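Deliverable D4.2, example record:
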Amino acid sequence: MIKVAELFADEDKIVKERINAKNELESYIYLLRNQLKDLKTFFEELLSKEKSIITNAIENQIKWIDTNPNVKVDQFRKQKKQLETIILQIMSKIHGYNVNNTQSQSFQYYGEL
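Output generated by the structure prediction step:
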């Protein structure tokens, strides 16, 4: 029994990483969507065009997850990075941040969403 578990340990690790990456993306998506609905957040400063861009990006990510539930970890991370980039660009315009700032600094602020 232990030998069988050892045989599947690597596969289990890959599955766990994929599930975690998918959960991170989904959590980020739904956090953004809820923040857009809450007018007490800094999203209230967005123009309707900017809200539409974010809403479309969120909906596209949800559709992507629904059609690609079992892709590799890197693909989930790539999708999350794309969404983060869209949010960063829009928020940079509003708050006057330099888009070329290191992402760790920029996303630290947005991590409070």
